[in-house]
Amino acid sequence: MQSLIENARAFPSSVAERRDDLAALADGQRPQALFIACSDSRVVPSLITGARPGEILELRTAGNIVPRHRSEADCGVGATLEFAVIALQVPNIVVCGHSCCDAVQGMVTDKQPPGMALFNRWLQRAEYHSRPAAPRKGAATQRHLETQLKHLRSYPCVARRLQERRLRLHGWFYEITSGEVFTYESRERMFRPL
């Protein structure tokens, strides 16, 4: 933790040459995308995309889960989606899954970690339905990612913006060991290198 504290203390001097760019962000934000990623510490959206401050709005959830819309349920994911789509009018939403995902592994094996009731209930909101094992690496996470893209479409603000052709959805799969990113091609229902 000490190294994190020291870096935070040194941050103002390390960005001194970009101070004007950062000051301009105080006037508001216009991110290019809402980036929904797993809360896994090995997945760093700005590192993967090269995004600078103000370029992406991040939403991090265990297993990059986007629960299906329910009008009677208050949910931080839904609130962030509404803010991104309505207030910020982001033109893109990226849902990024990754290899070695503990949350997806928990869904696939149906192993409930003891003492983690909230986490276990959260995993149920992913609505993961296992299919026969696929031979390709990362297949379970990729199937999970397809489901989360479907869930996104259940939100009225997302569905409306998609219909107006003012929003695009993207499914990305990040391979931790190689750094490769694959994109979901919905017509072919497969992932290809980005």
Overview of the structural elements:
- It is a single chain.
- By secondary structure, the protein is of the alpha/beta class.
- The chain has one domain: Carbonic anhydrase (Beta-carbonic Anhydrase, Chain A, 3-Layer(aba) Sandwich).
- It contains eight helices and six strands.
- It has a six-stranded mixed β-sheet with strand order 2-1-3-4-5-6.
- It starts with a helix and ends with a strand.
Map the helices and strands.
Blueprint: H1 2-14, H2 19-24, E1 33-38, H3 45-49, E2 56-61, H4 76-87, E3 92-98, H5 102-109, H6 117-124, H7 139-152, H8 156-163, E4 168-174, E5 181-185, E6 190-193
Parallel strand pairs: 1-2, 1-3, 3-4
Antiparallel strand pairs: 4-5, 5-6
Cofactor: Zn(2+)
Keywords: Lyase, Metal-binding, Zinc
Function: Catalyzes the reversible hydration of carbon dioxide to form bicarbonate.
Going by CATH, what is the homologous superfamily? Carbonic anhydrase
Order of strands across the biggest sheet? 2-1-3-4-5-6
CATH topology: Beta-carbonic Anhydrase, Chain A
Roughly how much helix do the residues carry, as a percent range? 25-40%
**Shape type:** globular
The secondary-structure class comes to alpha/beta
| Count of helix runs | 8
| Spatial gap, N to C terminus | 35 Å
List keywords for this structure.
single chain; 194 residues; alpha/beta; Beta-carbonic Anhydrase, Chain A; 6-stranded mixed sheet; 6 strands; zinc; Carbonic_anhydrase; Carbonic_anhydrase_sf
